Amino acid sequence: MNSPRKTTARLSTVALLTAATFLGSCSEPAPSAIAATNGAQTQVDPGPVVGAELAVLTSPPMVPPPITRDHATKLIVNLEVREFIGEIADGVEYTFWTFGGSVPGSFIRTRVGDVVEFNLSNAADNKMPHNIDLHAVTGPGGGAASSFTAPGHTSQFSFKVLNPGLYAYHCATAPVGMHIANGMYGLILVEPAGGLPPVDKEYYVMQGDFYTEGGYGEAGLQPFSMAKALTEIPDYVVFNGRVGSLVGDNALTAEVGETVRMFVGNGGPNLVSSFHVIGEIFDSLYPEGGNLPNHNVQTTLIPSGGAAIAEFKVEVPGTFILVDHSIFRAFNKGALGMLTVTGDEDLVVYSGKQDDRIYLAEGGAVQSMPGSGAVSVPATRTHDERMALGERGYVANCLACHQSTGLGIPAAFPPLAGSDFLMADKARSIGVVLNGLTGAVTVNGTKFDSIMPMLNLADDDVANILTYVRNTWGNEGEMVNLEEVRAVRAAK
Ligand SMILES: [Cu+2]
Q1: Ligand 1 midpoint to CA 254 (Å)
Q2: Is the pLDDT of residue 8 over 80?
């Protein structure tokens, strides 16, 4: 019989469907691979399996190097399950169960047609049996039954990766929800035969929701809460297993002009992610990890147990914030990361603030403020006026990071409420708000090493906001007046 597999290298979608129908009615196995390049579906025979090699595994946010071989191989994956206590947020400990010692687990990179020899080891000092269900597997349970492994044992099974794409994997040992909730998930990439188009940077980011006995930020070792997991209202929603895993020194990085590819997964166990990068647009987006690209996408929905590939070029420098756009999760439960882009400004693509006018809704008068320094505003304001205007200014300019409570976010944004750093030196605090802040600072004994952007505020706004900040949440300080702000600006 003449197999349709051999007839032509390039088939239209219609032809493929026809071929599939035809195949269904004969005893030939289905074509083993359908690779895609920029949306054009091309039938590619992945070819014979040649040789053997040990898979390179990486912890997030790193990704193994692209596959350069032009043939399928026997790929040996050695993955060890480790149970340990780690931090889910500063001062908050949790017992993680992991594939390879990280949440999410090690990234596995294969090529279509590879025969994967999978060795799952369960460390001898672990307490629980575990297994693995890989969504890239064609076979019952995705490998779960074959990989069930008691502590101190190694299970081996093998599978052929038939479909290119980005797939989640997870533990499927009962209670399944609990094993996933404790961090047992990760991603496996199956590259198409021709590989993925080259990019400058590749990163691995995976969201997960966590359920603890104590509320968000409650210190100490926090046990898993089955009751909360059943209600599906998590205390933590995080990228890469921890609040602050991708901020400050741990931020992802790129240079202006580079192309970035993010392999983004969602381990759940419960929530769906509305993945978004603030200030960027995905030039290409492979929804659900499949091979049909969408273009010019703002936010993508990543199902629990699913993935997406997001690609974009970075045109301007700055800090681009990764969020689950179900936004309370980002600013209040931890689903926030950063991509720091360095390089030259392109003021045509993004100008920065060009003008600032005071808009007084009551009086209808609009006062123009040409540079942020030289402003015609009342030189004196009462304390109460500054407090009221300052609160408004705080909400508009500071709240997103330092929070309405002034408590900030552990490991990301320092507290202003009760901050010894803020209250110790008035002129210095004016300088922080005028110029932004980088480098390590210690606030109430906790070190922060991140970036506060320069906000381009008018001097009067700075005086108002700092008067408010230095006299709210239990802080007690004098009013900050315009002369003091001007003096700090002039001294710069
Ligand atoms: Cu498990």
Answers
A1: 35
A2: no
Q: Would you call 68 exposed, middle or buried from its count of C-beta atoms within 10 A (0-12, 13-18, 19+)?
A: exposed
Ligand 1 centroid vs 131 CA: distance in angstroms? 6
3-state secondary structure of 173: coil
The CA 184 to ligand 1 mean position distance, Å, reads: 6
CA-to-CA dists, residue 96 to 21, 83, 212, 226, angstroms? 46, 6, 12, 15
d(CA 164, CA 161): 8
Q: What is the DSSP-derived secondary structure letter of residue 288? A: G
CA of 96 to the centre of ligand 1 (A): 10
273: left (phi over 0), alpha (psi -120 to 50) or beta: beta
What is the per-residue pLDDT across 79-109, written as a single tens digit (0 to 9) for each?
Answer: 999 999 999 999 999 999 999 999 999 999 9
Task: Give the tokens for residue 230.
Answer: 């059943």
Q: Which of 318, 211, 187 is nearest to 262 (CA)?
A: 187
CA of 278 to the centre of ligand 1 (A): 34
CA of 172 from ligand 1 middle (Å) equals 6
For residue 360, the model assigns a pLDDT of 53
Burial-class residue 430 by CB neighbours within 10 Å (0-12, 13-18, 19+). Answer: buried
Contact 65, 71 (CB under 8 A): no
Q: Tokens 């505003």 map to which residue?
A: 377
How confident is the model over 149-176, as pLDDT tens digits? 999 999 999 999 999 999 999 999 989 9
pTM over 0.90: no
How far away, in angstroms, is 267 Cα from ligand 1 center? 13
**How many angstroms is it from 472 CA to the middle of ligand 1?**
47
> Which string of DSSP letters, residue by residue, matches 94-160?
EEEEEESSSSS--BEEEETT-EEEEEEEE-TT--S-B--EETT--SGGGGTGGG-B-TTEEEEEEEE
User: Vertex 320, ends 262 and 277: CA angle to 5°?
Assistant: 50
Burial tier of 366 (Cβ tally within 10 Å: 0-12, 13-18, 19+): exposed
Spacing, Cα 240 to ligand 1 middle (Å): 18
